[in-house]
Write a sequence for this structure.
């Protein structure tokens, strides 16, 4: 029979193992990506891999340059943010600051609920409803274009950005607002001069997280971006972002082949980009906490 | 002086660099009520928590000196904290029943300590509720949530919960400060009743309460035990000028 | 003075009105998407559609295997992720002391939640499908999805545990309970509603995930229901993708895709709605 102190120690150590599971998986992901993907960097060379626009993995000789794919990811993400940020932040401001409480209690949960709509549903809508519409409007040969992907990704990111920005604005202490109103500022001036500056780093966190999600989003871009590995010089032409490339080609790349390695190579780049986004989001979040708590 | 249940000798207590208790010496007599008074932040609650080692839970805290319990220092290496807390019960400032039924709240302690037999359990629960002068009020709703009781009832439930593990000493940290006068009176009557079977140490910010319920009183100021004596002596003829100033309301 | 005052007021009104318009259009856009999916898909749905097998190369029949497949995958993922996440959260809130260790764990959780879903898919392919040789199967897919939702469950459990009042802990310890007894009998029961909410949100998320299962679990067309955890399965989200992106007879298959989308959407929205209501009810209860 164990005495209780030993038993407590054992339990504590077991729980600690569980707590490390996230680190374990994260490390596992990094190891797997590099083990499978790193060989392509030595074969092709990192600069060739990143900056060559020849993505011909099945040709002879093959080309493994992801410049067009990387550019497509970046352009589509920026385009999505151009759509999502104004709508998202404006909505968040309105919900948290202007909307009466009884409406807020309906609107906020509705938006949170919409945040759960699976990406494949957006993909279906973009592919079968938005894309024919855009083809008609612009007279295009195909409606599956960078613009279609931007619009769908932008809409998809909306709930995240609205919800997180709204949290940030609501977290600004009421006393700040009251102090400004008591000095004779009206609600708009208070919002512009006091609330938004205080909430800004929280809103930035929301936007960065939205961007991270957009650049890593797979199914929607796979379905609506058109899939051509062209440089995104015209948003009305099809493109092929990194995530779509991985999802579309992994099925046909033999395990361990150069093509397989190159797809893992893309995943490394993608992983690093989202890692950087995450770190920035964490920093912004930290700043926001300090500002609100006044430390 | 009567038999001593506990005796504190040269006790120092630190939160990191801050010394919260300075060389405290105090005897705690068996079957007596000892009241600890003093302005907020004087160390009286900290002191109370050194008596059942609840302060162990605070990161960066440190204890020097001896707290003798039946002659044995509770800060010795070989002391089992769990066993100690079983023998020295505690009642907190805010009534804090668990979100469980009345019965399960009182049965919690005995169950934790391995009692499974339902009949014995029921006996203990009813005995403890009677001991806390609560049984008649709750006997028909033992299975209802404890959170539905009034504040005063909740506090007596917490006392019953503490009694159920059959402690020898009962520590009370301002047990009536969150209660209305009627509930407070009930708690005070209960304390008077309980001292027949338990040694009681009570922290209170109300001097009237200390005067009403206690046999001995200790006055704390900024981590020092300024004066300790029989309660009537402290309130009628204190030795220390600072005690007199506090009692007469000149500060605090 | 009077004039300036009215101008200030007019500007305020105009801008607030504009913000309101932006908000309404945001909700409207999201609403339109759901509306269109329903409009095109509801007609396809019938009892037959839900409970029969697909036929003729996925051009006719129902989606029973996809519904069941999603159910197996989600159940598996939750069964794995819940204990892992809850125990991790217990360590983080109840045991870990402030300092480097807990910071590192937090960074791990937050970065894991930011990993793109397709990368999880690659990880699952490399570890579960190939290295551990589970093949493309329910097992591989469930394990991959479990990692995807682990951060969600850890965060929700952490929040739930932290909302348990400290008095519960100290009064249990004062009764001579050990730390683990206190957690098991007092802290954990009090945080169950919050943890449950987190798990339900996890279910909603996992049910719609596609990219992590493309290479680890999913198959486009199956004549049989899965026999064991080593069988590959059809799944609702993958079914939608496969029907519209790789289907060979669109006029027959696209309606099935819409029908599947309605089933998935109703499921996910319902699950999220339950979670949100639970959270509102639970937080009100805690506030009182």
């Amino acid at each position: 029979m164990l005495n209780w102190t030993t038993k407590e120690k054992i339990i504590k150590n077991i729980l600690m193992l569980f707590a490390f599971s996230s680190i374990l998986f994260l490390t596992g992901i990094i190891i797997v990506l590099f083990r499978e993907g790193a060989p392509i960097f030595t074969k092709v060379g990192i600069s060739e891999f990143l900056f060559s626009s020849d993505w011909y993995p099945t040709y002879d000789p093959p080309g493994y340059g992801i410049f067009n794919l990387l550019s497509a990811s970046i352009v589509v993400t920026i385009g999505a943010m151009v759509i999502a940020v104004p709508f998202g932040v404006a909505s968040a401001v309105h919900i948290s600051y202007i909307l009466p409480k009884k409406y807020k209690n309906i609107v906020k949960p509705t938006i949170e609920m919409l945040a759960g709509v699976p990406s494949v549903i957006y993909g279906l809508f973009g592919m079968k409803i938005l894309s024919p519409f855009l083809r008609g409007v612009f007279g295009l040969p195909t409606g599956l274009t960078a613009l279609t992907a931007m619009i769908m990704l932008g809409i998809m990111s909306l709930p995240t950005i609205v919800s997180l920005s709204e949290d940030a604005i609501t977290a600004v202490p009421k006393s700040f607002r009251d102090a400004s109103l008591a000095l004779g500022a009206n609600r708009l001036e208070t919002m512009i001069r006091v609330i938004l500056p205080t909430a800004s780093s929280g809103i930035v966190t929301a936007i960065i997280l939205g961007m991270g999600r957009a650049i890593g989003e797979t199914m929607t871009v796979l379905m609506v971006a058109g899939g051509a590995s062209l440089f995104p010089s015209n948003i009305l032409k099809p493109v092929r972002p990194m995530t779509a490339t991985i999802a579309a080609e992994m099925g046909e790349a033999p395990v361990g082949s150069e093509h397989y390695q190159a797809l893992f190579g893309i995943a490394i780049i993608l992983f690093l980009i989202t890692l950087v986004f995450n770190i920035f989001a964490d920093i912004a979040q930290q700043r926001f906490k300090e500002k609100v708590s006044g430390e | 002086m009567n038999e001593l249940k506990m005796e504190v000798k040269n006790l120092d207590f630190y939160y990191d660099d801050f010394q919260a208790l300075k060389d405290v010496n105090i005897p705690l007599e068996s079957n007596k009520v000892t009241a600890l008074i003093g302005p907020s932040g004087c160390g009286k609650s900290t002191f109370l928590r050194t008596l059942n080692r609840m302060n162990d839970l605070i990161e960066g805290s440190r204890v020097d000196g001896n707290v003798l319990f039946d002659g044995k220092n509770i800060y010795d290496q070989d002391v089992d904290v769990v066993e100690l807390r079983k023998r020295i019960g505690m009642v907190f400032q805010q009534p804090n029943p668990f979100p469980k039924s009345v019965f399960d709240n009182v049965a919690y302690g005995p169950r934790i300590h391995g009692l499974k037999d339902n009949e014995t359990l029921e006996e203990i629960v009813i005995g403890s509720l009677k001991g806390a002068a609560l049984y008649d009020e709750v006997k028909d709703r033992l299975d209802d949530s404890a959170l539905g009781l009034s504040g005063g009832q909740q506090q007596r439930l917490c006392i019953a919960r503490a009694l159920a593990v059959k402690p020898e000493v009962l520590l009370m940290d301002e047990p009536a400060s969150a209660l209305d006068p009627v509930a407070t009176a009930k708690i005070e009557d209960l304390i008077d009743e309980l001292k027949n079977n338990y040694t009681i140490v009570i922290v209170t910010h109300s001097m009237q309460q200390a005067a009403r319920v206690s046999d001995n009183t200790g006055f704390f100021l900024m981590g020092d035990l300024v004066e300790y004596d029989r309660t009537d002596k402290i309130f009628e003829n204190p030795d220390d000028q600072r005690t007199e100033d506090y009692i007469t309301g000149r500060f605090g | 003075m009077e004039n300036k005052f009215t101008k200030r007021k007019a500007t305020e009104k105009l801008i607030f009105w504009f913000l309101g318009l932006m908000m309404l259009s945001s909700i409207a856009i999201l609403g339109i998407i759901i509306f269109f999916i329903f409009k095109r898909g509801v007609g396809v749905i019938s009892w037959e559609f839900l409970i029969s097998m697909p036929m003729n190369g996925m051009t006719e029949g129902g989606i029973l295997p996809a519904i069941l497949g999603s159910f197996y995958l989600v159940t598996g993922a939750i069964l794995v992720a819940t204990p892992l996440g809850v125990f991790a959260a217990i360590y983080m809130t109840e045991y870990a002391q402030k300092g480097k260790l807990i910071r590192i764990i937090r960074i791990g959780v937050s970065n894991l939640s930011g990993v793109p879903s397709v990368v999880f898919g690659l990880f699952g392919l490399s570890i579960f499908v190939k290295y551990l040789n589970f093949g493309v199967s329910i097992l591989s897919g469930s394990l991959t999805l479990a990692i995807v939702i682990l951060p969600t469950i850890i965060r929700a459990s952490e929040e739930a545990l932290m909302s348990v009042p400290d008095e519960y802990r100290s009064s249990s310890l004062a009764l001579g309970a050990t730390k683990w007894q206190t957690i098991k009998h007092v802290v954990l029961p009090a945080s169950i509603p919050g943890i449950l909410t987190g798990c339900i949100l996890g279910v909603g998320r996992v049910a719609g995930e596609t990219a992590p299962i493309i290479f680890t679990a999913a198959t486009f067309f199956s004549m049989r229901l899965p026999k064991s955890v080593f069988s590959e399965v059809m799944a609702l989200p993958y079914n939608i993708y496969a029907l519209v992106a790789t289907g060979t007879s669109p006029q027959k298959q696209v309606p099935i895709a819409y029908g599947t989308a309605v089933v998935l959407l109703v499921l996910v929205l319902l699950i999220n709605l339950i979670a949100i209501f639970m959270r509102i009810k639970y937080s009100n209860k805690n506030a009182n």
